[in-house]
Known about the structure:
The protein has a single domain, classed as Protein Transport Mog1p, Chain A (3-Layer(aba) Sandwich). It has helices spanning 67-88, 161-174; strands spanning 3-8, 13-18, 22-23, 37-45, 51-60, 91-101, 104-113, 135-144, 147-156, 176-177. Helices cover 20% and strands 42% of the residues. The protein is globular and about 45 Å long. By secondary structure, it is α+β, with helices and mostly antiparallel strands. It has a seven-stranded antiparallel sheet with strand order 3-4-5-9-8-7-6, sandwiched between helices. Strands 1-2-10 form a three-stranded antiparallel sheet.
Amino acid sequence: MSTRLYSNAELGVRFAIDDSFADGPPLAASPDPPGNVRSAYLAARDAEGGQAILSISRVEVGYDTSPQELAEQLVIHNRFAAHTAEQQGWTIHSPWKATTLAGYPAMWCDYVVPQSTGEAGAPGSASTGGDSTPGHVQAWVAYVGGQTLQLMLGVNPPGDLTENRRLMSQAMRSLELLEPVD
C-alpha cells in the first residue's frame, strides 16, 4: 500500500498515513474552557464496508505534565479500562503504558470492543450502557508542554489487528509536532 503525508497546521502535526485515508470535514475549534480544543479526523473504508477513523485532538491544559503526574494518569486510566473491560467485555491487548511520542512523554493502549449480542445484560448491550459497535481501538496521548495531543484509531469491525497496528505504528513513528497555527 502507498502512503501520503498528512499535515494539519492548526493541530501542529504531520505524519505519514496509508493513502486510503481521506481528510474528514473541518471541525470547529472549541473556545470554551477547559481550553481550546482543536480536532480533525481521517477516515478510510475497505471493500467489505469496514471503516477506520483516526481522530486527532490538541487540547490546551495550561500546565506541563510531570513524570509523576504521568505515572498517576496511567494508574487512573488503567483502573477505568479494567472496570470497563469487566463491564463491557473489552479485550485489553495492552493496558496504558508510558512511552514517548515525537520526543515527548506519552502513553498508549490497545483494546478490542466485542460485538454485542443484543441480549439484556450482555457485554456491550444497551442495558449495560455500552457501545454495541465492535471495534479495535489504539489510543495515544502525548504531553507537549501545556498541551496534550490525543490520537485514536478506531477500526470497525476489528478485522486484522496486525494490519491495524501497522497503520497506527506508521503514523506514530513518522509523527512530527509543529508549532500549531492559530
